[in-house]
């Protein structure tokens, strides 16, 4: 009668405990089959990766007196009023009453898969006055003919720009791996991205290439600049650069310079031209700074999670061959996306990290978004290097890093459990003299990126009053502290991997229930660390 029957499916003992403490009664699912009976309007599907976690959860769900089992038996024929599950396929939402609460929306793959987010953000300029290139590394779906061609052109143009950067670097007679660090920051372990390239130590290493190579790169970049200055909102504007040079030969020579240490001959006039052209391109290309000079791209299955199948690559032909030839059962043909790797990123103690940031959507009409003010950082197990593209150096997912032992070369100041809280990160930034970066650059940037992603996909989502969803967005941090959105997860893990995540995951689950349940009856109740950042 009080409508306090709930169902929890998945590794969520905190949710179960908190609901029972509120006086709710659980309708437990059958231990065999893991599905509600067929007459129930909701069917549940379990991702294989969650099975071990669920078994552990069952073992920890103590009910020594059998009270919860008895109460569950008494409500076995009642529909739950609150459903929290790790994956939900709605087969008949019409049978749900309006006051039934479910922790998922339908068709959120428009922004929670790599392929969906890539496509949705391409349409953002038509919806909002916002440029996805300012917060989302450019991305292409290789299964689409037009986008595959656009990626090939982008790779070539990036190679031309990168060659100009390498030429300038060599003309200055400075080692590639040298990066000047502010004196005030050295003691705190300040690390920007370093290109550790033993083969490419100076411009004089290797044999010099023909002088026309820089001229070709300059010509390509000049033509591209002309296109950018007259380009409309459609990024598919044709480029005159597709046939202006022999691209196969140019790329092979670029590879020699970028990856094999070949030197470049640069005249004084060419040096001035390179500097001027790159400055003008920076005014048109928001990603010119973060893209670096080695043309690293990251190839991802379009609908996978937890770092499955992700590979970093530096050669065009290898990217295309990999996308064509990969036949894993979990990857449908043509569902690959390729994304520009953020080469100029902020590292901590020489190690790459990313940020897992939670937010909740409680309504899509009007769109209502709550940002969680606590988050955590995830570190890689090996030191960052762009000449070594192993997953242990470049994929920060806990599900990836748990398979790697910490490298002997790793700075001992990197936390052993590879996790930091946002508070620890803010303290670190303060040591670098960047105390304001968190509140003035990072947090506003993450909020804006999340809202733009949601607005770009809003028309695709299956809206339902009474539902809500907790998401986990992943961000990289550029060397200028600008956040770059990588992906949004519809079912962020709540299984703790450290003392930090044990505390934060428990807190975000507690505060989510406050937000979606307690606040209905008491609009002034505490919602913990949640902050309303948008309501249409």
TrEMBL record:
GO terms for biological process: cilium assembly; cilium movement. It is found in: Cytoplasm, Cytoskeleton, Flagellum axoneme. Its main location: cytoplasm. Keywords: ATP-binding, Cell projection, Cilium, Cytoplasm, Cytoskeleton, Flagellum, Ligase, Nucleotide-binding. GO terms for molecular function: ATP binding; protein-glycine ligase activity, initiating. Residues 175-206 are annotated as: Disordered. GO terms for cellular component: axoneme; microtubule cytoskeleton. InterPro entries: TTL/TTLL_fam, TTLL_monoglycylase. Gene3D superfamilies: ATP-grasp fold, B domain. It catalyses: L-glutamyl-[protein] + glycine + ATP = glycyl-L-glutamyl-[protein] + ADP + phosphate + H(+). PANTHER family: TUBULIN MONOGLYCYLASE TTLL3. This is TTLL3 monoglycylase.
